[in-house]
Write a structure and sequence with these properties.
Elements lengths: L8 H12 L32 H5 L3 H8 L10 H10 L2 H7 L12 H5 E2 L2 E4 L10 E3 L7 H7 E3 L6 E4 H6 L2 H4 L4 H5 L2 E2 L2 E2 L9 H5 L2 E9 L4 E9 L14 E8 L7 E5 L1 E4 L2 E4 L10 E7 L4 E9 L3 H6 L4 H4 E13 L8 E2 L5
Parallel strand pairs: 2-3, 8-16
Antiparallel strand pairs: 1-2, 4-5, 6-7, 8-9, 8-17, 9-14, 10-11, 10-15, 12-13, 15-16
Length: about 350
């Protein structure tokens, strides 16, 4: 399905300098191989009978419960992933979606990140655990995520996923705000392991600021939307190539007359075209949709996890394949003077 190559030189130079400042006995990638896996966690640490997730649950019930509902746990049996994987196959896909092949049903499990060479790894160690532990601050670094979130297409020079490079160019990167800050947030003295992201309405809703206005024209109604990424350290959407950010607008009461605009990555005659929302501090994108005459315009801003034809052919529902970021209603105003009231829809959910 895909193969992976080394990160581009410019990124390698940056991340190597970042890694040099991190202490610990492992490299900043947690010794995860280039290409994502398979991951050799080594022998079972003294004090444990197993490094399976169920064994971890005995003492880490909250973390286990959160992980069991996360996209790490379901990475190999996620229906959208399986549709692609079962049709095209590809060992390179399994390297990240099932980095411990003998435990593929657990996807990215506890040991994938937290066990190496007979030790349980943690950013800090209390000394009270019943097993051998090693303090590993690299777990709090962006490179711990890099092997599975930055790689190239096998047959093209472009990157299939570029989340690390997006972070490098972002305000979050400049501030050294890591992936874990949002996706493994602290809760008291521990980190949550449900990995809030596209399945968490609060996280998703805070990722994009949406402002819109509807203007009456001679031909009908013009709906103009200003979209800007916020509170994220990567493009929106990031990750899978087939994801897109979609704006739909329609005259109130006439959804069959909806018009759409997509922000996504695609290949053109001269290579990869990236139309997504870049991370802050980029000013964002402006989209215009021409609609029939209407006194009010309804709209929705959505994350589409797959192409519409794949959704239909795979038998997926909209609830499975799409997420709503914002929705609302715009009052239509005359174009006199060349302006109309701008309405902030960022809290429309």
């Amino acid at each position: 399905m895909r193969s992976r190559r080394a990160l581009p030189f410019a990124v390698v130079v940056f991340v190597s300098s970042l890694a040099a400042g991190q202490a610990g006995s492992f490299d900043a990638y947690l010794s995860i191989p280039e290409g994502g896996g398979p991951v050799d966690v080594g022998p079972v640490p003294d004090g444990l009978s197993s490094v399976d997730a169920l064994a971890c649950r005995e003492c880490h019930a909250s973390a286990y419960r959160e992980w069991a509902q996360s996209r790490h746990r379901s990475s190999f049996d996620d229906p959208i992933f399986r549709r692609e994987f079962d049709v095209r196959g590809g060992e390179s896909c399994a390297r990240c979606h099932a980095p411990r092949p003998a435990h593929s049903g657990d996807g990215v499990d506890c040991a994938t990140c937290h066990v190496r060479d007979g030790f349980v790894l943690n950013p800090t160690v209390s000394g009270r655990a019943p097993h051998r532990s090693r303090e590993t601050p690299e777990l709090n670094g962006v490179l711990a995520c890099a092997r599975c979130h930055e790689f190239d297409f096998g047959s093209r020079s472009s990157r299939q996923q570029s989340t690390l490079s997006e972070w490098t160019a972002s305000l979050s990167g400049a501030r050294e705000e890591t992936c874990q800050r949002c996706h493994l947030p602290r809760e008291g003295t521990r980190h949550r392991h449900d990995l809030p992201g596209i399945d968490d309405p609060a996280t998703l809703g805070s990722a994009v600021r949406v402002r819109g206005r509807a203007i009456r024209t001679e031909a009908g109604t013009r709906a103009v939307f200003q979209l800007r990424a916020r509170r994220v350290g990567h493009a929106v959407p990031t990750g899978d190539f087939f994801r897109s950010l979609v704006v739909r607008a329609w005259p109130d009461g006439r959804p069959e007359q909806a018009q759409t605009a997509q922000l996504r990555r695609r290949f053109g005659p001269e290579g990869l075209i990236d139309e997504r929302l870049p991370p802050p501090p980029d000013p964002g994108r402006t989209l215009t949709l021409e609609l029939p005459a209407a006194d009010r315009v309804r709209f929705a801003v959505e994350l589409w996890l797959m192409r519409p034809r794949d959704m239909v052919e795979g038998g997926f529902t909209e609830a499975e394949a799409r997420r709503t970021i914002a929705r609302g209603v715009l009052e239509t105003f005359p174009s006199t003077g060349g302006s109309a009231r701008r309405q902030d829809a960022s809290s429309a959910l």
